[in-house]
């Protein structure tokens, strides 16, 4: 059977032209299942792995519906949990709707309200926003939502989990009762699902393996002592095939410290966490997207919905607390039909988290050992200039000594383990 075409949905030439110029050739699974019911005006609950095209799954049919009838003022509201994700959705809406004549406004926190109030006063048809800032402008009577025909909650589970429920309720109550409501997310745990369904009326459900990482991601766990994490990370960043990577940690302080250590070691590295100003966040993400940085050290702020091309590796420097977070983090690589690698560093103290993670995913995760990476960064490379090249050459010169140290450490570790079974026997470095 051949690939399905966007033409089968009856899309108009303006939306189809935007799709073609954006590089969309055929609908991905979540798009193939969601576009038709959204075009029909049905409420929808859409679950799919991150990186599978959820944004286009709701933008394409909603842009088509808006373009069929002209009217002034906000008719579609898309809510997102973070400024970064909202900015990304807004850019995609402008790209896909380029030939429709529809205007989109971005309303997010962390920046002055003046330009956003001006943009809303121009009565755009589409508003992409974070809940807090849109509610603030609504209460100040700078936003008119009285003619909204559809509302989308993207990454709905994250918004509810982060405590946005009061703001979301107030916003939904301000919208016309007769409207289309869509929930999209990579994951939707059962307790959040019950809450989400209160906002939906007889929703059409689309669910594609919500807890599993995308098929193109090769992922594994690697046992390591906490003090050896930085050394192992350096080996991973130097392995063959590494192009661009995101390293996730639990706290802002740890992210800052690791970014500093990597920068001092000669890596082109930047950090993304909640203490940065909006300008600093934009600079970090822009530099990572444009290739000024090869490594982005981040807290889970960056794990939700962001789409950066060319990410070859994801490293969980700290084990994520839930299967949902694991899926979201890994979704930064292997997006669409691309492939990627993901590695989770695991210490002895993480064994309970690993057990819970594997239970939620429904299968044991592959294991790799530290020695699997030994020497991978020592292979001959094209001559490189600058600090990064010097760092790689330094690692190569120290390779023999490092291997002797690792061998000695493994020998001592085996002596300590003795004949113990269980966790220690499964995790050999």
Q: Can you characterise this structure?
A:
The chain is an alpha/beta fold. The chain folds into two domains: 6-208, 3-Layer(aba) Sandwich (Rossmann fold); 217-381 and 411-426, Rossmann fold, CATH 3.40.50.300. It is 41% helix and 15% strand. The protein contains 17 helices and 14 strands. It has helices at residues 13-21, 29-39, 54-68, 83-96, 114-121, 131-139, 156-161, 165-174, 190-196, 229-237, 252-264, 278-290, 323-330, 351-361, 386-397, 399-417, 423-426, and strands at 44-48, 76-79, 104-107, 126-129, 150-154, 180-185, 204-208, 217-223, 245-248, 269-272, 295-298, 313-316, 340-346, 367-368. The strands form two sheets. The protein has a seven-stranded parallel β-sheet with strand order 3-4-2-5-6-1-7. Strands 10-11-9-12-13-8-14 form a seven-stranded parallel β-sheet, sandwiched between helices. β12 (313-316), α13 (323-330) and β13 form a beta-alpha-beta unit. The longest helix is centred in the last third of the chain and has 19 residues, at 399-417.
How would you briefly describe this protein structure?
The protein has helices spanning 13-21, 29-39, 54-68, 83-96, 114-121, 131-139, 156-161, 165-174, 190-196, 229-237, 252-264, 278-290, 323-330, 351-361, 386-397, 399-417, 423-426, and strands at residues 44-48, 76-79, 104-107, 126-129, 150-154, 180-185, 204-208, 217-223, 245-248, 269-272, 295-298, 313-316, 340-346, 367-368. The protein is an alpha/beta fold and 429 residues long.
């Amino acid at each position: 059977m051949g690939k399905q075409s966007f033409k089968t949905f009856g899309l108009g030439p303006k939306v189809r032209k935007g799709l073609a110029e954006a590089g969309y050739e055929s609908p991905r699974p979540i798009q193939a299942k969601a576009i038709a019911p959204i075009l029909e005006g049905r409420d929808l609950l859409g679950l799919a792995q991150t990186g599978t095209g959820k944004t286009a799954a709701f933008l394409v049919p909603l842009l088509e519906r808006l373009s069929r009838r002209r009217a002034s003022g906000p008719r579609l509201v898309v809510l997102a949990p973070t400024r970064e994700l909202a900015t990304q959705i807004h850019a995609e809406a402008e790209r896909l709707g380029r030939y429709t004549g529809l205007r989109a406004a971005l309303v997010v926190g962390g920046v002055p309200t003046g330009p956003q109030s001006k943009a809303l006063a121009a009565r755009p048809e589409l508003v992409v926003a974070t809940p807090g800032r849109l509610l603030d402008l609504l209460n100040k009577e700078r936003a008119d939502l009285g003619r909204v025909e559809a509302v989308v909650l993207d990454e709905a589970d994250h918004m509810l989990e982060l405590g946005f429920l009061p703001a979301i309720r107030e916003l939904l109550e301000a919208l016309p009762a007769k409207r289309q409501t869509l929930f999209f997310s990579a994951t939707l745990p059962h307790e959040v699902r019950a809450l989400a369904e209160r906002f939906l009326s007889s929703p059409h459900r689309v669910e594609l393996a919500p807890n599993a990482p995308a098929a193109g991601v090769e992922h594994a766990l690697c046992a390591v002592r906490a003090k050896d994490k930085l050394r192992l990370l350096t080996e991973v960043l130097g392995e063959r095939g590494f192009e661009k990577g995101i390293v996730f940690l639990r706290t802002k302080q740890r992210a800052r410290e690791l970014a500093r250590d990597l920068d001092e070691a000669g890596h082109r590295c930047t950090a993304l966490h909640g203490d940065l100003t909006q300008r600093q966040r934009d600079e970090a993400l822009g530099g990572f997207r444009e290739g000024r940085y090869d490594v982005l050290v981040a807290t889970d702020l960056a794990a939700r919905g962001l789409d950066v091309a060319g990410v070859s590796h994801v490293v969980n420097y700290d084990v994520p607390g839930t299967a949902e977070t694991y899926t979201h983090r890994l979704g930064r690589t292997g997006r669409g039909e691309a492939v990627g690698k993901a590695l989770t560093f695991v210490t002895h103290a993480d064994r309970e988290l690993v057990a819970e993670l594997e239970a939620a995913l429904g299968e044991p995760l592959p294991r790799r050992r530290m020695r699997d990476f030994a020497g991978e960064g020592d292979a001959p490379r094209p001559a490189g200039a600058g600090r990064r090249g010097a760092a790689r050459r330094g690692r190569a010169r120290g390779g023999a000594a490092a291997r002797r140290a690792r061998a000695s450490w493994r020998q001592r570790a085996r002596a300590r383990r003795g004949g113990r079974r269980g966790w220690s026997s499964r995790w050999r470095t």
